[in-house]
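Tokens for chain A. Residues wanted.
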């Protein structure tokens, strides 16, 4: 089956693919120590431990796409080692992520010649797939939206082992306008050799097209084929600490989801066989709907996928029990029991949940009656339980019938205290020094303190929002991963970002920072500062004396412009006294265009000499006009932008011209024509 799927899915242009299971997902997080980086043939990088492995495609084709497989898998089983969980193994391509921006769909990562996401725009590469600490990271720029992907091996909520991959995306608006941004992700799952296992959600097993929206979206889903002899069992966790549940889940076949990057027609009752083929290829699509993303804002999306924590006991009636191994005190969590009849008809079947002290049934009845269960039939039962206080607990489920022996399964549950995080943020006062903002870039510093009684696990800090007056410096991530944070002030961890003022903007600038952990509520901090206005300026640089054979003094002076956010042109009058300047031959002043005139096509540069006249106090004026025209508008934020270079011979000791003429001005979009402060 695996080989036929591999051969079939490669025929992308014809769409002739044989079998596969797909999942549209998302996730984020931090792994513990001890990860191994492996370079796979023709692929990028991988993270692995004794349970699980994740590979990211290094590209250039299909860069950023990933696969997941077991290494040792479930320690209680010997038959799930080195088995795929997400199709692709060493060269993943069938799983891909769609980013919808203002109604246009983009494929995250490198370009593809395959069926999945073929023909979609991909944006420009910002961060080549690479390992950063214990994460696999890459990023692309899609218009004004920066999209960053992070893959991390983390501890599963259900098994308590480091056998899950948290997949996370951060969407950041680096532009100046609001955009509608959403995300959909296709992860092509495969349970060993099995591509047709049903997806089990709550008390239902999905075998055909379906759509779940809003409150219908579950906390998690699981996939396995049989309790009697399961292949690899997998779980996708949609809700939990630091996870962001999707707005919508769609079950369909991989071919349909690969060919339609966002809008998918759901056909209830249609099984997961791809059109024109004969084998099942089920898929899950997770959608985070488009929402407004303002300039300077970031949106984080995360989900988790890995091995399922199912304790199994076999008999006339086989019983599987799944629940988290660790929960936070005061929280609600789901307990699910799977019952499968592997013999003849079972009569008067009952399932009972038993809870130890500290665990309380939150709703429903502890005993559920199933009645008669035919051979090979199965049922799923869900209870909602509250963890009332910290400590060690146990839950047990027993299934019985009037014609078979009871079967019982138990699982331990550790209830941990919730920890409290505190954020202390600060930044310096901004001042104008020498016509420029200082400091620039602006350092934003914060400290994260755990004021609880227990360590905080997998701590992350995110710069959620930056006022458009300031922007995060290019290619920096709004996300920081801190790992484990011990209690106490002495264990506090510092974090810093650098922010750049937006040219032409001033006023109040605000930021919002959040910190979270697997066992903590989100902490937030907001602060603001005033960004003072910068006045457009034109000024002379330091004169440079050029030695002459005859001993005369020839001076060169650069004429600079700065603090002009959208420069399209300028007309500047330079005043001078003819008696102090010895004419150069032929013009009285020599003019060389500056950097603002250097472009393709070149800007227009003109000069005009206005002789002294009545009422001008003996001053002449050299008018310099620069018009960028087709060369386009530029932003002038530094003294390196020169309008022109003047060259003349002094008669006396005056090192500079006398000043600037009234009526000097600059212009550009949003500026119209404004007088300039000269200095």
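Reply:
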């Amino acid at each position: 089956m695996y080989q036929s799927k591999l051969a079939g899915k490669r025929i992308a242009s014809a769409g002739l693919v044989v079998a596969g299971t797909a999942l549209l997902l998302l996730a984020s997080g931090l792994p513990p120590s001890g990860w191994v980086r492996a370079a796979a043939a023709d692929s990028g990088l991988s993270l692995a431990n004794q349970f699980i492995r994740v590979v990211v495609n290094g590209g250039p084709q299909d860069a950023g796409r990933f696969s997941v497989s077991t290494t040792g898998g479930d320690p209680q089983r010997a038959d799930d080692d080195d088995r795929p969980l997400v199709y692709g193994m060493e060269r993943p391509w069938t799983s891909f992520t769609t980013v919808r921006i203002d109604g246009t769909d983009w494929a995250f990562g490198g370009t593809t010649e395959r069926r999945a996401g073929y023909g979609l725009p991909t944006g420009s590469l910002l961060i080549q797939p690479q390992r950063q600490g214990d994460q696999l990271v890459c990023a692309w720029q899609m218009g004004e939206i920066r999209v960053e992907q992070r893959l991390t091996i983390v501890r599963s909520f259900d098994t308590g082992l480091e056998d899950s991959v948290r997949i996370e995306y951060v969407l950041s608006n680096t532009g100046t306008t609001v955009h509608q941004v959403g995300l959909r992700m296709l992860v092509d799952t495969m349970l060993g050799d099995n591509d047709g296992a049903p997806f089990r959600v709550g008390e239902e097993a999905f075998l055909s097209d379906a759509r779940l929206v809003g409150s219908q979206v579950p906390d998690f889903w699981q996939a396995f084929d049989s309790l009697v002899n399961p292949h690899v069992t997998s779980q996708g966790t949609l809700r939990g600490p630091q996870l962001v549940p999707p707005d919508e889940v769609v079950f369909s076949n991989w071919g349909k989801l690969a060919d339609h990057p966002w809008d998918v027609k759901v056909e209830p009752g249609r099984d997961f066989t791809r059109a024109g083929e004969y084998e099942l290829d089920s898929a899950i699509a997770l959608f985070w709907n488009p929402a407004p993303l303002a300039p300077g804002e970031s949106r984080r999306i995360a989900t988790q996928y890995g091995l399922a924590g199912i304790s199994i006991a076999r008999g006339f009636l086989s019983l599987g029990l799944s629940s988290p191994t660790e929960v936070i005190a005061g929280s609600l969590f789901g307990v699910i029991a799977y019952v499968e009849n592997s013999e003849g008809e079972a009569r008067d079947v009952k399932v009972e949940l038993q809870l130890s002290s500290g665990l309380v049934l939150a709703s429903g009845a502890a005993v559920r009656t199933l009645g008669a269960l035919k051979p090979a039939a199965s049922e799923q039962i869900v209870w909602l339980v509250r963890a009332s206080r910290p400590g060690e607990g146990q839950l047990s489920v027993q299934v019985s019938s009037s014609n078979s022996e009871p079967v019982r399964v138990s699982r331990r549950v550790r209830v941990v205290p919730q920890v409290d995080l505190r954020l202390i943020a600060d930044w310096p006062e901004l001042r104008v020094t020498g016509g420029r903002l200082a400091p620039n870039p602006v350092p934003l510093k914060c400290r994260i303190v755990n004021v609880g009684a227990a360590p905080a696990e997998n701590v992350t800090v995110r710069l959620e929002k930056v006022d458009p007056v300031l922007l995060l410096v290019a290619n920096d991530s709004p996300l920081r991963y801190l790992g484990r944070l011990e209690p106490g002030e002495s264990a506090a961890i510092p974090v810093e970002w650098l922010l750049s003022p937006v040219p032409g903007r001033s006023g109040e600038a605000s930021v919002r920072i959040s910190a979270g952990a697997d066992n903590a509520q989100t902490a937030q901090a907001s602060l603001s500062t005033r960004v003072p206005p910068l006045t457009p300026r034109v000024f002379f640089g330091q004169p440079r004396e050029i030695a002459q054979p005859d001993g005369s003094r020839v001076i060169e002076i650069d004429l600079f412009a700065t603090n002009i956010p959208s420069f399209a042109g300028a007309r500047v009058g330079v005043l001078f006294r003819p008696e102090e300047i010895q004419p150069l031959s032929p013009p009285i002043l020599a003019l060389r265009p500056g950097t603002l005139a250097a472009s393709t096509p070149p800007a227009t540069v003109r000069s005009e000499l206005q002789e002294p006249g009545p009422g001008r106090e003996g001053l002449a004026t050299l008018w310099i006009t620069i018009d960028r025209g087709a060369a386009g508008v530029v932003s002038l934020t530094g003294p390196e932008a020169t309008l022109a270079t003047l060259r003349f011979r002094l008669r006396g000791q005056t090192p500079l011209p006398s000043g600037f003429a009234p009526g000097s001005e600059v212009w550009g979009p949003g500026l119209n024509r404004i007088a300039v402060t000269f200095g």
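Confidence is low (pLDDT under 50) at residues 1-8, 10-43, 585-589. The helical segments are 2-9, 254-259.
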